[in-house]
# Entry
Amino acid sequence: MPKMSQRLSLIKPKIRLAQTNLLDEEKQKMTDEYLNSEVCQECAECCKSWWFYTDLKDDAIRSSWLDTKLISVNKIKKGLWKITFHIPCKQLIMKDNKYYCKVHKGTRPEYCKTYPMNFIADDVEQEMLDYEKKTCPILKKIEKKEKS
# Structure
């Protein structure tokens, strides 16, 4: 029987996320304008739950069968699902009616440092970006600004 780490690497879902270095200068400027702004501090949806995209049907089915309302599975398109854990981050705090991260300048995971930039890079599938716009007001603002 393989070791636990080997088994985990075998079942790790294929997650499709863009690298932040793929942002063009204009998108980076727009993103910087909004990130850590009041928009983020009033929303914090990216901290109130955690999700990933997978193209592994078995992971989507198995997750959807768990007997809890804390996990949801949404089919984005044929062969692509978003699995969401509706569990807030322990580092999220509210102060003066605004959300803050207790470790914002410290040991935040890379995903936290790059969200939502990782979804506006050119190689992200349009369906994923469209779905993220339902969650993140920053992505909506950037889209409106790009269209104007």
The beta strands are 50-54, 71-77, 80-85, 92-95, 98-101.
